[in-house]
Each structure stands twice: as structure tokens, then as C-alpha cells.
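Quick one, T. Sequence first:
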Amino acid sequence: MELTESLLMSDPEGTIDKMLHLRQLGIRFALDDFGTGYSSLAYLKSLPLDTLKIDIAFVKDLTLDMQATPIAATIIALAESLGLDVIAEGTETADQCRVLARLGCHVYQDYYFGKPAPAVEFARRNGASSPTAS
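C-alpha cells:
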């Protein structure tokens, strides 16, 4: 389940309680758009998170803006030190993926790999059998 920083900061204690309950049911949590909201790093260590998602703002200019790379590197290092997975949003070029891989991020999300599609189209594109309704 993806949560935004602004949602978490609206009621941190209540949100943490709900997250802990859902975690007991096997739900995993990703903090979306990390670095663009108002969250406190103090809360980051107490949140039951599994993944940090690097916001597109820090990914789109990786190969153009010298300040974007150290910010992305810091987010990746922070996630790693907290035992969290990291996903880079907004990856649209092979160069961005190469820079992110060099920094330690190996999971990417966005149009470089394909645009959103219905399940049947996704399966066709990826050589999988068609999904069935359940």
C-alpha cells in the first residue's frame, strides 16, 4: 500500500497504529513521493515501512542536474541503512536507470518499461498467459 508523506503527517500516531494493525494482516507499505512532503526524519524510523519511493523530481534530471544525483544517492543510502527497499519513480531513459543502478537502486517505475495497460494487454506484451477473473 502506498502512502504519501502528507497523509502520514496529518495524524502520525493514528496512522502508525492503523499501519501496525494492517501489517499483521500481511500488508506492506511504501512511502510515496519521498522527499517532497513535510515529513520528519524522526517519524521515518518509527513508521512500519517496507519501501521508500524516490519522487520523480529527483529522478527526471539525474543526467542533467548535478544536484539531483547526490539527493537520489542520499535517499537510496538512507533507505538501505533503514533496511528498506527503494523504488525510483519517473524513470524514462536507460541513462537514468544506469545512474540509479550505480547508486544502488535497482527497481524503477515509469514509462521506460511501458505505459499502464489493462491486465490482458500487459500479459500479451510480456508473453504471459491471460489473467483470469477471480
